[in-house]
Design a protein that fits this description.
Elements (H helix, E strand, L loop, with lengths): L4 H10 L4 H8 L3 H8 L7 H11 L3 H6 L16 H10 L4 H31 L8 E10 L5 E7 L5 E7 L10 E5 L13 H46 L1
Length: 242
Amino acid sequence: MLLIGSRIQEYRKKAGLNQEEFAEKMGVSRQAVSKWERDKAYPDLDRLVCICEILDVQVGELIYGKGEEPEAPEEVSGDGTSANNAVHLKNLRGKGRLARLKILFCVMAAICVFCVIVVAVLFVRNEWTSHSDKNGNVRVEKVYQQYTKADLAYFDDNGRKIMDTVWLDVPGVRDGDYIQLYTGADGNGLFLNYKTSTIVAASFVMLVFIILLILIGLEIRRMKKEDTLQIILEDKTADEKM
């Protein structure tokens, strides 16, 4: 991230403005200006342009300081082809990282959706002491994997065989075993007494992935803003050279 706080402060003082006056002209709070000057926050592109207008300073000078602007292309043809090519080549920098972040964001989004579904199933299927009828004749038809899904079958009060797929957190269950589960007063579904640790662990994992997804999204947004700013600066440099 570009650290421009000291330069904002320098040009603000040269303009004879204190933080409160400058904040009023910018339409922000004094605390926001203070954060900018201490590099605790970064003004977005629109506010950066507004800062330059108020302080009567060029964007490149505010970003890089006097005499530190990036080098312009050495050769420029009459139609500006070299300048435009240089701009596009420079903007390729960081594109690979941005692309990888976008792929990671999609993967994390898929994982988050899966985690949300798992937690939702656990909450919906948990007994929560509201289903008092136990059925001890629930047969395990197929176990996909321990601590994961299993196909279960039981007979309701009318003698109908009902198949259901649930998430089990009971170790050692095998195909053909009979287990006790809550079938509800109407026998319309299977409900389990999940361990508290199972629900807490699943909820924690879901929360961690959601936080990571948000952080990746914020990083992608930040990189896009910096790319936009870089394009403006490079276009301006190329135009001045032409």
